[in-house]
Amino acid sequence: xxxxxxxxxTPALASKRSKETMDAxxxxxxxxxxxxxxxxxxxxxxxxEVKPKRSFWTRVVDVIAGEPDFHYLxxxxxxVTDSRGRILVTDLGAGGVxxxxxxxxxxxxxxxxxxxxxxxxxxxxxxxxAQDNIYVTDSQVGKVFVxxxxxxxxxxxxxxxxxxxxxxxxxxxxxxxAGQHIYVTDTLRNKIFMMDIEGNILQAIGKTGTGDGxxxxxxxxxxxxxxxxxVDAMNFRVQVLDRxxxxxxxxxxxxxxxxxxxxxxxxxxxxxxxxYVVDGLWGMIQVFDQEGRLxxxxxxxxxxxxxxxxxxxxxxxxxxxxxxVDSFNRRVQVFHYYGTAGTEDGRKP
Length: 349
Fold this sequence. Notes:
This protein is mainly beta. The protein is 4% helix and 41% strand. It contains two helices and 25 strands. The strands form six sheets. A five-stranded antiparallel beta sheet has the order 1-2-25-24-23. The protein has a four-stranded antiparallel beta sheet with strand order 3-4-5-6, with no helix packed on it.
């Protein structure tokens, strides 16, 4: 069992922006049992960070014409990575989705705020399928917006006659490419809707309540192997179902101490099957095993590296890099979990 420990962050800096953040002292590694460890890697918040080195002639043009306006995170909420290693972040404040591609040094911003038909007004959660098509829930208009991998709008799921959305408040979303299913939480209906890939509803999962398979304001979703995990926010827990919606187990209870949950937000699983849960109020991420035992936690309230203010979304990629949306600090923080000693990401050779 991994020992309980806290990742200590450096003191808060005066500025939350990119240069000061990148120049900040490094955060000490969190050393865990069995040769495991958690390392802080970086933060990012600006389009300009994707291509930090600008050419001489580009800088000359900037002097003459003025620097271009760069996009930046305003009120980020959800994060996901795709098969290309791109990082997609929804932004309620900016009204769109940021796509950061650090490997190719490219950036794109998707928005439909001013679209005449099916405008996207409040992008909430984001998911991708095996072809890197992008699915975004809009909690205000009650729809799911679908874009191709290049960011071109394809369709809106849940768009009824007259422009009204079917869902009352769609929040979490997960896409099962192999099974050709889309899962969406309708937070105000206390249900998860399972749809086919075209958006036709196949099954409604759950009802209002506190029992197994019942929900009180379900939000974020995450697929992991044969499991579907859902944040049951006002029951202060995470429920794990199978892909048909049958209850398997639950983790969490209400409280303000270690191992308890008060405001659960984003969730994810690392390569060893550990469940990571963001607690937005306490500014920390807690990590549990499948029996619900707390393994360790990291983070605290603050503005320095490794500290959070109202963290929300969380994504763990195939290399065990952990992306945490640090919403009120207007940034994404990146950590790296190193699992079993001798491998980079905890997977067996």
